[in-house]
Write a structure and sequence with these properties.
Layout: H1 6-17, H2 26-33, H3 35-54, H4 58-78, H5 83-93, H6 98-104
């Protein structure tokens, strides 16, 4: 993991804070509520991101996209997955058409 990348640093921080005090850490509080709540929050952020995109508000879209990525990393950590797992899947798909990739899933 390259700690020169902001997403890698964010992932490391999220992993550290998962077991922190829910009174002082949002990540710990969200983690304590369970995966269902984390997934719900990710869904809410996805909707907010889409709304900002449709509104053509670049500043709002940027902020909502950051929230979406943050919550995705929280969910991945809860599931025992990492950004490297996602990178590996993206690398597997590289050069494959989206239609072919979707068809390969069965």
């Amino acid at each position: 993991m390259s700690h020169d990348d902001i997403l890698d640093r964010l992932e490391a921080t999220i992993r550290e804070r998962r077991s922190g005090d829910p009174e002082t850490s949002y990540v710990a509080r969200l983690t304590a509520k369970g995966r269902k709540k984390i997934a719900q929050k990710l869904g809410e952020e996805g909707v907010e991101t889409a709304i900002a995109a449709v509104a053509e508000d670049k500043a709002a879209l940027t902020g909502e996209a950051a929230d979406l990525i943050f919550h995705l990393i929280v969910l991945l950590a809860d599931a025992g997955l990492t950004l490297d797992d996602v990178r590996a899947e993206l690398a597997r798909r590289e050069g494959m058409s989206g239609i072919a990739e979707k068809a390969s899933r069965g």
